[in-house]
Write a structure and sequence with these properties.
alpha/beta; Nucleotidyltransferase, domain 5; 6-stranded mixed beta sheet; 19 strands; 29% strand; globular
């Protein structure tokens, strides 16, 4: 790879419960991505999105990184990492500051002070702030301002924000595993937020939409309105729990249960056209089982119904469940199970669409055009947006004139550097 192209490379690292995926992408002049390399490895050190075996996790990350490097012809030094799991919390908060400039011009430092004001809330000792996402700015009582109001005039500025927190132990465990695997961390990004960059467009986020990302160990829910995330949560039911149900109910190996789920499983029994009898391999030399597909689907549907009922409760918790005209978008590997979209529509009572990564210009495009890679592609797009904003700030001279300003995401990176 030519040296002049190296500055345009971004790497996303999706550390999931069932798989670890590394995606290397080059940013084209039109802003779209050329996927240069994809590395995958089984994830054997996580449970429900949380690290339980650091040694195995480090080994799996290295395997994924190495495969991506070989395909891309590029040595990976830093990555944007996703974080998720039931330990993530979304807390609404507010901040208020007086404008410091004598001419009443709002500066980047004022916005930073405003975020710091909003972060002044009591957290348990085992929690740490991951990100602060502004919902709305209010200047001298004038509301409805959704863009960062740098350059506007005012005496008093308020903000309504969502503060995303996670367990200190899980943040530390994940970051240490990535660093020990031999790479630095550029950004730490909430996975449902990242996935939304890949499968939702600006129009959907503006009018109102809910996204359900069904992974291997966890399912992440994110609700958007007016272009910003309003609510997010994680539930501990996902693809691996469905596989485990099949394994335990039928008394078969988990690998065989996973195969049966993918080849013959349906999330909604009514979607089965031909209820054929299938043969299932027994364990330890026992005779094969012969069973109807509908029996498998009864097991799957019970668990998937529970998943969508819990997701519906989280969407309702957002307080805007009746104001989501764009409906629901499902993504992640679990969304590929036959009948999942139809079951989601039945349980949620709204239009449901399948989310597939977009904004991919070329390269290994066919390999990543799947909900399985929504988080990995989203991590890259999230990082790209941050870099574009940073370049724009420097171009305007803000970066040099106001060295005290630090973007919220940049501060997360600096925190990791201090570990």
């Amino acid at each position: 790879m030519k040296e002049k192209d190296l500055d345009n490379i971004i790497v996303g690292l999706d550390v999931g419960t069932t798989k670890i995926c590394t995606i290397v992408a080059q940013v084209r002049e039109d802003g779209r991505l050329n996927v240069l390399g994809v590395g995958k490895a089984p994830s054997t050190g996580l449970s429900r999105g949380m690290v339980v075996n650091p040694g195995k996790t480090i080994e799996n990350i290295r395997t994924s990184l190495k495969e991506a490097e070989l395909k891309a012809g590029y040595e990976i030094n830093s990555v944007t990492v996703g974080i998720a799991g039931p330990h993530i919390r979304c807390i609404q908060s507010e901040g208020i500051v007086a404008i410091s400039h004598p001419d009443r011009i709002i500066s980047e430092e004022d916005v930073e002070r405003l975020y710091d004001s909003a972060k002044s809330l009591k957290l348990s000792k085992d929690e740490r702030i991951i990100d602060v996402i502004a919902q709305e700015f209010i200047i001298d009582g004038k509301d409805g301002i959704f863009d960062v109001p740098v350059g506007m005039f005012g005496l008093r500025m308020e903000a309504k924000v969502n503060i995303l927190t996670g367990l200190v132990s899980q943040i530390d465990d994940l970051s240490n595993c990535v660093n020990t695997a031999g790479v630095d961390i550029d950004d730490l990004v909430l996975e449902p937020l990242a996935s939304s960059f890949a499968v939702l467009n600006d129009s959907e986020k503006k009018v109102g939409v809910a996204m359900i990302d069904i992974g291997g160990g966890t399912t992440d829910i994110a609700v958007f309105k007016k272009g910003v995330i309003k609510h997010t949560a994680g539930i501990g039911i996902a693809g691996s729990q469905v596989t485990n149900d099949i394994s335990e109910t039928l008394g078969i190996d988990e690998r065989e249960a996973e195969r049966i789920k993918k080849e013959f499983g349906y999330a909604l029994i009514s979607e089965i056209i031909n209820d054929d009898i299938i043969t299932i391999q027994g364990i330890k030399g026992r005779r094969p089982l012969k069973i109807n597909k509908s029996i498998i689907s009864r097991i799957i549907q019970a668990r998937m119904e529970e998943l969508f009922v819990l997701a519906a409760q989280e969407i309702k918790r957002s307080g805007i469940e009746n104001y989501l005209p764009a409906g629901v978008v499902i993504t992640g590997g679990g969304s590929l199970l036959k009948g999942t979209k139809e079951l989601a529509q039945q349980v949620l009572g709204t239009e449901v669409n399948l989310g597939i990564p977009t904004e991919i210009g070329g390269g290994l495009i066919k390999e990543v055009e799947s909900p399985i890679y929504a988080t990995g592609i989203g991590l890259i797009l999230h990082r790209l947006k941050y870099l574009d904003q940073k370049r724009a700030s420097v171009k305007k001279g803000k970066g040099k004139k106001k060295p005290g300003f630090k973007n919220i995401l940049l501060r997360v990176k600096q925190w990791f550097d201090e570990l």
